[in-house]
Structure formats: structure tokens, C-alpha cells
Design brief:
This is O-acetylhomoserine aminocarboxypropyltransferase/cysteine synthase. GO terms for molecular function: cysteine synthase activity; O-acetylhomoserine aminocarboxypropyltransferase activity; pyridoxal phosphate binding. Pfam families: Cys_Met_Meta_PP. Its cofactor is pyridoxal 5'-phosphate. The protein is α/β, with parallel strands linked by helices. It has 17 helices and 12 strands. The strands form 2 sheets. It has a 7-stranded mixed β-sheet with strand order 1-7-6-5-4-2-3, sandwiched between helices. Helix 7 links the parallel strand 4 and strand 5. The structure holds pyridoxal-5'-phosphate. Pyridoxal-5'-phosphate binds next to helix 4 and helix 5.
């Protein structure tokens, strides 16, 4: 086992003699076999191999293995976006008439997907405050609860979730904990080490880091006991896939195999080989970039905290943060590059500040190597009413600053001149 920065570079792909040194882009939807019998074995999951890119592709496979290694899981599945990963992570174990518990401190798109689309499809959701006590959380479980969903470090409210508390409750009720680990990445937090069973990411963010590809991933820890009597989809034959019994045939990789053979087959939200190639380039420098994002963000947060034009600053790396202690526990080496803050004068002052920025660009994005800034209440979270915004920890004056990896002095002087213009 190598250190994580070495894993970023080398895991997932070992070229043989005369093969490309770099993970190649296999831009082909189909793969050739000499006999129908050989092809049939692949369909029956009796042999490993590729036959159609909607299900698997060599470029994707290498990147999936790398991300599984980074998170410490048994397998991973790339998806066409983070949204697709979130959706499939839940749909893999939950259908109409069943129930999910979700933290309110989640990305706005996740909230929309759950609150609107999945509820319209008949899945019931209970949203809980991330600061809930274990006893209170226990009361939210129902007979038909199938999983608990949280974000390690929420976008954009930067709430650090107490993973052990949520994992403990989920396991007491015989269901898995799914964790969206997009913001810290496995460089700063590996949720499986704190009891999470499934991890998801928007790879569009730090994993790529250059803002060149949209993608997602689901990673399976292999630790959840799908044979505990609550999940017949793993212990009874899947008639739509040749009667396979996932927990019997695939053991620890049951969840991630079913995600592919069932959901990716049916939904088809597959990543493209070209995007997987770009994602891999990003992953190679992930450890280096996260270190710089975090050290820059801490400097920026300290600068903002001491500036008279700001009303408040939220960065879990700051000692003043209510999440500092949880951040120290779950992400002792750093959290992420995102800092949120409010300027005195509310919404109008926030807009003036943003218009005055020169180096930082206004973009609907975070986790890019270029510093960028966004006003969530008028963009990513605009579908929420004031009550929902409050529950998600997004105030109308909140500015989300995604600190890049430029020289920190240049970032701070840009912020400084824009603050002076307010
Ligand atoms: N999860 C988190 C924490 C996010 O920040 C995002 C996007 O911002 C998503 C999921 C959705 O990812 P994507 O935009 O790749 O669909």
C-alpha cells in the first residue's frame, strides 16, 4: 500500500510491455469477440471484460479502480455527473414506498433531486438537522427506511457532519450510511474509516479540479451486510439479470455490481471515456492541489475575519468556526478551499463586492484551481424558499468563495480591493 499521494498517480492502471504509459482513451462503444459463447459469458457475469461502454469501458475502469483505492473501497462506478451518482446511490437500494433520512446540510441540487423528483417517484424523505442528537435521530427511522444520506462537508454551508453519529444510527437500524464526500475528497477525509458504507462524489469538483469535465462516482466500502434481512434485492434472484443473487455471487462488491448491472444498464448515465481521461489527469495532482487549496483558504479566511467590511466568516479551519472541533476530528489535515462569508450591508453589498473582483471570477462552480465566487441565494439555491434556505444554512448575504491555487497574496489583494469598493 502506497501513501495517498502516490496512489493518486499510480493506482488503477499498470501498463504491460509496450502498452501506453498513460491511461489511454478507449473511445469505442463496442468491443469485439470471436464467438457468441465468449460474449455470452460476459452477459452472464461469468467472465470479466468489456462489451458495451454503457456498462463498462477500459478508460473508465482504470479511473474507477483509482478512486476505489483512494477511498479505501472495494469498487467504484463512474457516472455522467455528480447528480447521477447521488441519484443512483439511493435508487440502488430504495424504491417507491420506501423512506430515506437526509441531512438538511446538503448541496441544493441534492435537495431538489430528493425533495422533488424522488418524492414524486414515491420515495419518502425525512430531512434532519445535521446537529441532531443520536437519540433524536433514532426516532426518525421507520420500518421502511432504507438509508441515511449526508455530506461530509456541506456545499455551501460548510457544515462538518458528525459521520460517526450518523453511521451509528444508520447501523442500529440496519441500513447503510451514504456520504457525499465531494468537498474534502479522500485526501482530507475517508468516510469509510468513520463508518460510512457508500461514498459519492461530484468528480466535477476537486477530483478534476480544472473545470474541464462533468462527472460523478459511487464507491462501495464492501462493509455493509446486505444479508441482514432488510435488502431482498441482494439476497433474492434478480430475474432481470439472469437470476443473479448479488450478495451470493459478488460478496463484498454486491452493491457496486448491482449499481452497474441494474441501474447503469437501465438509466445509462455513463461517463464518457474522454471525460474519464481528463478526470484521471486531475486525480494525478489531487493531493498537491488539495494541500494548496487548504493553505490558501485558511489564509484568505483569516484575512476576511480581520476585515472590517465583513459581517461573518465561515471556514471550518478557523478556530472561530462552530465546526472546528469536528473538522479537527474528521479532517485534521485540512478541509477544502471553500470559504463562505457575508459582507456588511447584506445582499446589495454582496453584489457590489462581487462586481469589483478582478482575479476571482463569478462562476457557478467550486473546487476549481482558479479562484471563483458565487452568491448561492440568487443562483444554485434560488429554488428554495427562505425557510428551506435557512435550514440549508444559506443566508441571503452568503458569498461562497472557492479559493484556488494561485499565489495567496494575489487572491487576498483582489479581495481587499473589492471590499474597499463597497
Ligand atoms: N454533490 C455536491 C457536494 C456538489 O457540490 C455537487 C455540485 O456542485 C453535486 C453533488 C452535483 O454534482 P454535478 O454538478 O457534477 O452533477
Amino acid at each position: 500500500m502506497y501513501h495517498i499521494d502516490t496512489t493518486c498517480i499510480h493506482a488503477g492502471y499498470e501498463p504491460g510491455n509496450g502498452e501506453p504509459r498513460v491511461v489511454p482513451i478507449v473511445q469505442s462503444t463496442t468491443f469485439k469477440y470471436a464467438t457468441s459463447e465468449e460474449m455470452g459469458k460476459l452477459f452472464d457475469l461469468e467472465a470479466d471484460g468489456f462489451f458495451y461502454t454503457r456498462l463498462a469501458n477500459p478508460t473508465l475502469d482504470a479511473v474507477e479502480k483509482k478512486i476505489a483505492a483512494l477511498e479505501g473501497g472495494v469498487g467504484a462506478m463512474l457516472t455522467s455527473s455528480g447528480q447521477a451518482a447521488t441519484m443512483m446511490s439511493v435508487l440502488n437500494i430504495c424504491h417507491a414506498g420506501q423512506h430515506v433520512i437526509c441531512s438538511t446540510a446538503v448541496y441544493g441540487g441534492t435537495f431538489n433531486l430528493f425533495y422533488k423528483t424522488l418524492q414524486e417517484l414515491g420515495i419518502e424523505f425525512t430531512f434532519v438537522d445535521p446537529g441532531i442528537t443520536a437519540e433524536e435521530l433514532d426516532t426518525k427511522f421507520q420500518e421502511n427506511t432504507r438509508c441515511v444520506f449526508v455530506e461530509t462537508l456541506s456545499n455551501p454551508s460548510l457544515v462538518v457532519t458528525d459521520l460517526e453519529l450518523f453511521a451509528g444510527a444508520a447501523h442500529r437500524h440496519g441500513v447503510p450510511l451514504i456520504v457525499d464526500n465531494t468537498f474534502p475528497t479522500p485526501i482530507n477525509c475517508r468516510p469509510f474509516e468513520f463508518g460510512a458504507d457508500i461514498v459519492t462524489h461530484s468528480t466535477t469538483k476537486y477530483m478534476d479540479g480544472h473545470a474541464v469535465q462533468l462527472g460523478g462516482v459511487i464507491v462501495d466500502s464492501g462493509n455493509f451486510d446486505w444479508k441482514n434481512g432488510k435488502f431482498p434485492e441482494f439476497t433474492e434472484p434478480d430475474e432481470s439479470y439472469h437470476g443473479v443473487v448479488y450478495a451470493e455471487r459478488f460478496g463484498k462488491a454486491a452493491y457496486i455490481t448491482k449499481a452497474r448491472t441494474h441501474l447503469m444498464r437501465d438509466i445509462g448515465a455513463q461517463a464518457s471515456p474522454n471525460n474519464a481521461f481528463l478526470l484521471n489527469l486531475g486525480l494525478e495532482t489531487l493531493a498537491l492541489r488539495m494541500e494548496r487549496h487548504c493553505s490558501n483558504a485558511l489564509k484568505v479566511a483569516q484575512f476576511l475575519e480581520n476585515n472590517e467590511k465583513t459581517a461573518w466568516v465561515n471556514y471550518p479551519g478557523l478556530e472561530s468556526s462552530p465546526y472546528h472541533a469536528l473538522a479537527q476530528k474528521y479532517m485534521p489535515n485540512g478541509t477544502c478551499g471553500v470559504v463562505s462569508f457575508g459582507v456588511k450591508g447584506g445582499r446589495a453589498a454582496a453584489e457590489k463586492f462581487m462586481a469589483g473582483l478582478k482575479l476571482a471570477t463569478i462562476a457557478t462552480h467550486v473546487a476549481d484551481l482558479r479562484t471563483c465566487v458565487l452568491h448561492p441565494a440568487s443562483s444554485t439555491h434560488r429554488q428554495m424558499n427562505d425557510e428551506q434556505l435557512k435550514e440549508a444554512g444559506v443566508t441571503p448575504d452568503l458569498i461562497r468563495l472557492s479559493v484556488g491555487i494561485e499565489n495567496p497574496e494575489d487572491i487576498i489583494s483582489d479581495l481587499s480591493q473589492a471590499l474597499e469598493r463597497i
